[in-house]
Design a protein that fits this description.
CATH topology: TIM Barrel
Oligomer: single chain
Enzyme class: hydrolase
Family: Belongs to the glycosyl hydrolase 1 family.
Shape: globular
CATH superfamily: Glycosidases
Protein name: beta-glucosidase
Number of domains: 1
Order of helices and strands: EHHHEHHEHHEHHEEHHHEEEHEHHEEEHH
CATH architecture: Alpha-Beta Barrel
Radius of gyration: 21 Å
Number of helices: 17
Bound molecules: ligand GBH
Strand order of the largest sheet: 1-2-3-4-5-7-10-11
Keywords: Carbohydrate metabolism, Cellulose degradation, Glycosidase, Hydrolase, Polysaccharide degradation
EC number: 3.2.1.21
């Protein structure tokens, strides 16, 4: 961001921190009046998670919240991104269902403790844990009804916490909600056309309907916040989208076009209506009348409904035109270059390799296209085979350090060389935790969690990031710190 003297610098309120999500860490699923979420039974169903793991205990953070905050304080973070479990606040989910005072009390004391330790709460209202009650009542995100229930839930949160929370994220990664939950069927509620996987679902229609209802729910919640809460509470509200950089596999015209097509579906599906006011043309062509339409009145509420660009990003894909995957814009992804070399270091998950230049390129693309300050709300790496190592070995997570080293250099270059206005960096994740369909097999934490004892052990990557966060303001010491570590 250009300063008065013209030299780019980090924003004075830049937030360093770590991120988590309620279902991945809290456990205590049947405590203090919490209702069920769609992930409760889904994760308990045989075959839905890689190792059979579920969310019943996770990192036990509902019980160990004080210990967690003490560790965040020890790390010296300026902010912590966490999510609120809708079913703890309104156990059955709906606008006429009772609010649970114990749920309010839990997050309220949590927020107070963060603030008492000088840590800014950065709150996600929805990170995939839909109340089961709403799924049972009317099929959850498939039904427009949900807009009213989601907005009511948000109102309860703004009223209860908005005096202290100044950073709100309405939704985490709508692409994942729609595609993984209702297209591929790998996340709750597991709808898909693949009848070997699920008796219910239509992957050709449902994801587009779900995405549409998520956008509207987000937009109406923002409208509510801006009209009734923002004038007194003075906070910011926006959505956070997943999205990875794409590069054409080679310079054939089809492959060059495919890189933009995949960005149009991975990111533009949500970002274009929210920031620019319409679905991408490529999606309209690809989907025809399967893509729902906004009324003029809705569009007026959707356009401009995010105060900033919330960015979750992990990797870069090489794209080739072809295949039948509409969720990737009819492109195929690979990490193998035409000469047979790999793009970067392979993570534990098949979809993730290290590629810092892609992070920098994506920051630039998003800033140019959507023209808003960017909050990086997730970025991280799972070391291959980490779960089979001893605790000591796992804490020497040099591939993760290498990943964050590259990411911090890219962040630095985007700010100081490219002039991108970036406001936060939240590595994923504070702790190893329940990695959705991967169960506990895949570890993303900068802190190792021994699930037998629930003890936490800082990994080398935590120490690296803590040191970077102490040095980032001065471009020279930042770069020299990064290049002398790891
Ligand atoms: C984030 O999503 C989530 O917000 C977080 O909860 C999670 O723990 C973290 O990542 C680590 O996974 O096409 O089926 O191969 C990351 C975005 C988008 C990454 C979809 C995986 C490919 C899935 N994800 N992507 S698939």
């Amino acid at each position: 961001m250009a300063s008065e003297s013209g030299a780019p610098k980090f924003n004075k309120d830049f937030l360093w921190g770590f991120a988590t999500a309620a279902f991945q860490i809290e456990g205590s699923t049947d405590v203090d009046g919490r209702g069920k979420s769609i992930w409760d039974d889904f994760s308990r169903t045989p075959g839905k998670t890689f190792d059979g793991g579920n969310g019943d205990v996770a990192t036990d953070s509902y019980a160990r919240w004080e210990e967690d905050i003490a560790l965040l304080k020890q790390y010296g973070v300026k902010a912590y991104r966490f999510s609120i479990a809708w079913a703890r606040i309104i156990p059955l989910g709906g606008r006429n269902d009772p609010v649970n005072p114990k749920g309010i009390e839990f997050y309220s004391k949590f927020i107070d403790r963060l603030l008492a330790n000088g840590i800014t709460p950065f709150v996600t209202l929805y990170h995939w844990d839909l109340p089961q009650g709403l799924h049972d009542r009317y099929q959850g995100w498939l039904n427009k009804e949900i807009i009213l229930d989601y907005v009511n839930y948000c109102r309860v949160c703004f009223e209860a916490f908005g005096d202290r929370v100044k950073h709100w994220l309405t939704m985490n990664e709508p692409w994942c909600v729609a595609v993984l939950g209702y297209g591929r069927g790998v996340f709750a509620p597991g709808h898909t056309s693949d009848r070997l996987r699920s008796p219910i679902g239509n992957s050709a229609t449902e994801p587009w309907i779900v995405g549409h209802n998520v956008i509207l729910s987000h937009a109406y919640a923002t409208k509510l916040y801006r009209e009734e809460f923002k004038p007194s509470q003075q906070g910011q509200i926006g959505i956070t989208l997943n999205g990875d950089w794409t590069m054409p596999y080679d310079d054939s015209p089809e492959n060059v076009a495919s890189a933009q097509h995949s960005l149009d579906v991975a990111i533009g599906w949500f970002a274009d209506p929210i920031y620019l006011g319409s679905y991408p043309d490529y999606m309209k062509e690809m989907l025809g009348d399967r893509l729902p339409e906004f009324t003029d009145e809705e569009l007026a509420i959707v356009k401009g409904s995010s105060d900033f660009y919330g960015m979750n990003t992990y990797t870069t894909n090489l794209t080739k035109a072809g295949g039948d995957d509409e969720f990737q814009g009819l492109a195929e992804y690979t990490f193998t270059r035409p000469d047979g070399t790999q793009l970067g270091t392979q993570a534990h998950c098949a979809w993730l390799q290290t590629y810092p230049d892609g992070f920098r390129a994506l920051l630039n693309y998003l800033y140019k296209r959507y023209k808003l300050p960017i909050y990086v709300t997730e970025n991280g790496f799972a070391v291959k085979g980490e779960n089979s190592l001893t605790i000591d070995q796992a804490c020497q997570d040099w591939d993760r350090v290498e990943y964050f080293k590259g990411a911090c250099e890219a962040l630095h270059a985007a700010v100081f060389e490219d002039g991108v206005d970036i406001r936060s960096y939240f590595p994923w994740s504070f702790l190893d935790n329940f990695e959705w369909a991967d169960g506990y097999e895949t570890r993303f934490g900068v802190t190792y969690v021994d699930y037998k004892t629930q003890r936490r052990y800082p990994k080398a990557s935590a120490k690296f990031l803590v040191n970077v966060s102490l040095n980032y303001r001065d471009p020279l010491s930042f770069v020299s710190y990064i290049s002398h570590s790891g």
